[in-house]
UniProtKB/TrEMBL annotation:
<feature type="region of interest" description="Disordered">
    <location>
        <begin position="1"/>
        <end position="20"/>
    </location>
</feature>
<feature type="compositionally biased region" description="Basic and acidic residues">
    <location>
        <begin position="1"/>
        <end position="10"/>
    </location>
</feature>
<feature type="region of interest" description="Disordered">
    <location>
        <begin position="169"/>
        <end position="188"/>
    </location>
</feature>
<feature type="domain" description="HTH marR-type">
    <location>
        <begin position="26"/>
        <end position="160"/>
    </location>
</feature>
<dbReference type="InterPro" id="IPR000835">
    <property type="entry name" value="HTH_MarR-typ"/>
</dbReference>
<dbReference type="InterPro" id="IPR039422">
    <property type="entry name" value="MarR/SlyA-like"/>
</dbReference>
<dbReference type="Pfam" id="PF01047">
    <property type="entry name" value="MarR"/>
</dbReference>
<dbReference type="InterPro" id="IPR036388">
    <property type="entry name" value="WH-like_DNA-bd_sf"/>
</dbReference>
<dbReference type="InterPro" id="IPR036390">
    <property type="entry name" value="WH_DNA-bd_sf"/>
</dbReference>
<protein>
    <submittedName>
        <fullName>MarR family winged helix-turn-helix transcriptional regulator</fullName>
    </submittedName>
</protein>
Length: 188
């Protein structure tokens, strides 16, 4: 595996890493995530084609189905941010290759649900090592210390916000419990 710092001098500077501070940290972090995603997708395309003999978009469908026993086509389209018509074509290709099954949703004549076949599960298991190595190498190539710090900032801001929301909810729950206990105590 490549050393993350090996290519650090080749990496583009983080968005606005200069003195202007035009972009907020969240946007800088998002731009790094987009660049990293693009690099991973670019490297994965050939590995996916070689190992699974499917397109990158079809691979994304397979990955979603690997996480869920089955999904409605509309949900897959939502999760991937793809038009339903394009997804219909991709699923037809996957079905033709014997990698997914399609069936109508019980009680909904328009609903279609898709699931992985055993063949797809087998192929994904066989390819998983090469695919994960490709992702790791692509990220190491595009993410130096400055890029990792930008993403950490994005994630830590999200974690702080989640923690604050949880703390506020806990405080409200405690106040309701105390208020209910006081009401019961006053009624006695």
């Amino acid at each position: 595996m490549a050393d993350p710092e090996e290519h650090a001098s080749d990496l583009p500077r983080c968005p606005n890493s200069g003195s202007g501070e035009l972009l907020p940290p969240e946007l800088r972090g998002w731009m790094v995530v987009l660049a990293a995603t693009g690099a991973v997708e670019q490297r994965l395309r050939s590995v996916v084609k070689e190992r699974l003999d499917v397109s990158h978009d079809e691979f994304l469908v397979l990955c979603l189905l690997a996480e869920f026993p089955s999904l409605r086509m509309t949900r897959v389209a939502e999760l991937l941010g793809r038009p339903k018509t394009r997804l219909t074509y991709q699923v037809a290709c996957l079905q033709h290759a014997g990698l997914v099954t399609r069936q109508s949703v019980c009680g909904d004549k328009r609903g279609v649900e898709i699931a992985l076949t055993d063949k797809a599960r087998h192929l994904l298991r066989e390819a998983s090592g090469a695919l994960s190595e490709t992702v790791t190498e692509a990220l190491a190539h595009v993410m130096g210390a400055e890029q990792r710090e930008a993403v950490r900032g994005l994630l830590s801001a999200q974690a702080e916000e989640t923690a604050e929301t949880a703390e506020t909810a806990q405080t409200a729950q405690t106040a309701q419990t105390v208020g209910a206990a006081e009401t019961v105590g006053a009624a006695e």
